[in-house]
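Subject: complex prediction, re-run

Hi both,

The earlier run crashed halfway through, so I resubmitted it with identical inputs.
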Amino acid sequence: MAPSSSGHRISRRALLRGTAAGAGAVALPTLLTACGGPGNEVKIGSNASDAVPRKAFAEVFNAYEKKSDKKVKVNTVNHEAFQEGINRYLKGTPDDVFMWFAGYRMQFFAEQGQLAEISDLWKGFDGFSDALKAQSTGKDGKQYLVPYYYYPWAVFYRKSVFAQRGYEVPKTFDEFRALAKRMDKDGLDAIAFGDKDGWPAMGTFDYLNMRANGYDFHISLMGGKESWTDPKVRNVFDLWRGLMPYHQKGANGRTWQEAAQSLAQKKSGMAVFGLPHPGQQFSAADRDDLDFFPFPEIDSAYGQDAVEAPIDGFLLAKKSKRQKEGKELMKYLATPAAEEIYLKRDPNNIAVNDKASTSSYNALQKKAVDLVSNAKQISQFMDRDTRPDFASQVMIRAIQQFINKPNDIDGLTKDIESQKKTIFASD
Amino acid sequence: MPLTTARRAKRRGPRRFTSRDLAVIGVLLGIPVLLDLALIWGPTLASIGLSFTSWDGIGDIHWVGIDNYKTLFTDYPPFWPAVRNNLLWVAFLGLVATPFGLLLAVLLDKGVRFSRFYQSTLYMPVVLSLAIVGFIAQLVFSRDQGALNAILANKNDPVDWLGDPDLNIWMVLLAAAWRHTGYVMILYLAGLKSVDPSLKEAAAIDGASETQTFFRVVLPTLRPVNIIVGVITVIEALRAFDIVYAINHGRNGLELLSVLVTDNIIGEASRIGFGSAIAVVLLTVSLGFIVTYLVQELRGGKKG
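This time it finished cleanly. Structure:
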């Protein structure tokens, strides 16, 4: 469910593994992962199943192999399947180091004692901001994550479309709405929109909430501490409802890939996306034409302070028998050099380390760096800022329902609130 | 029949089995019984047990009584749509796809021209997994890029076949029926081949019309096939999963009990207790069909 570029195809292997584990036959994955070599080898659990990131990571690990005379063995699993199987993965025999996400989603597993603490490593880290450290820290104040890259969310558009029609980048929500209305009149779908996979629309909700109610309220809402029936939340849905006529119709039947294609084909004017999403659907020739602006201001008290920028990184499994080797690898992954190798191959993200060179960045990446470094607060994404069961079981459905029937906000928020209570009470 | 009784009586001796026989029987019966207990009854009972807990798969197991069921029935919006869709699935496959398969089988059995060709064409979807059928359905029904909307050429207001929760279940049922029909057809074709032609001839001599012959003579002789087809239809409907999962993870109008179980247990959510409760509901629904079937079978056996 996390923003992924792999689409939503299901992996039968993961399903089988899940089912087998459910039936008590955990022996299979154990056997599969147990046939590793001696101590000069490190195993990495990778969710980078798409071609571009997969190759980019392979280069990083190759570089590490050369540098350290350690062998790195990568175990790649389909992106979505990796997420879905994460519980069973950690409970069985996880690889030593594995890819995961910052924030609540990391803390959730840290709390359950599945992750090895790496606070000692953090003492030696250089080039990571305090915001990054906060996102890598568990609720117990210890560090668990080595952050690797960001991909900020923003409103994407085509420069040529804006130039040709004389559109201007909106700064406030009123200007945004006015622009959407104008695009609508010009025969465009103002806002490209696809939510078939359930998660892409969460980005829009996050931004509306952070702009209207501020970052603190948003995080507290995601943490289950606020009521969803609060007028502030209803206001968010209300603002969204006002925009619905300018969103592409039939979003629940459209993947984000198709939505991004309509932006590339100049059939729609704008789209709320993460940095890697539209780029992949644009042809190489069109990519220079892609640009973005930060989500417009709704309440001047909060301005455009908060930026939604999910961080991906690496975690060390508590169960790993190669803690030392794992930490050494993580230490390397935290260096600017390791990030540079990756980003040269996959220019759809930006480095988290301040010291990483930006000379190979394209214009869009440079702009993204500005966006993130000027942000006063950084959020992760709805499904990373809240409990995974709440995001996947309640919010995906709620937002899809809202897209179908934007008028029943009271019923919707009541529905979410009562489910939230059961889920957050289950601890 | 005195002869058999006599034989049986002869066989009955003071010692029927040697101890070795008993050991062999014990092992041969014991292994399957143990396997059955371990692989079927064990997980089933474990699910029922877990459905009364709030286990998340990692931490301690807490007993919560019937809380999961209460939540399920009152505070879990996808539940009732899933039950409704599962029943709709049974009804659609049972009342539309299965009779249609029978009709095709009868037509083909009469020996229309090119019947081999039709037979293989109709059977072709059966070799595809339902997940693949799901992907094909997306190519056909996608709103922006699907084949159907391209044929209809309704560019200005395309129908959102898979995104509209009032429509998509029917599209998916069509896709599932596309496969099911071929399956049923091939079973009935085999059955029809084995119907004694002299029965039909006798009926014809007695002056029965073709429809009468079919419903009064042929169909009753197909009873064993009917039962198999009935059971298959129910199983297919209750285990339906891959097709909706391939299309949109079984959300937004395509909810099914099997998907809810998977989402809660295998997905990141990891609400194993809650997911087990849904699984128990699915088990209960299935038991309903199984019991009805067994009762009918036993009654039918007595009558026969």
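Chain B touches chain A through 42 residues (CB under 8 Å).

- K.
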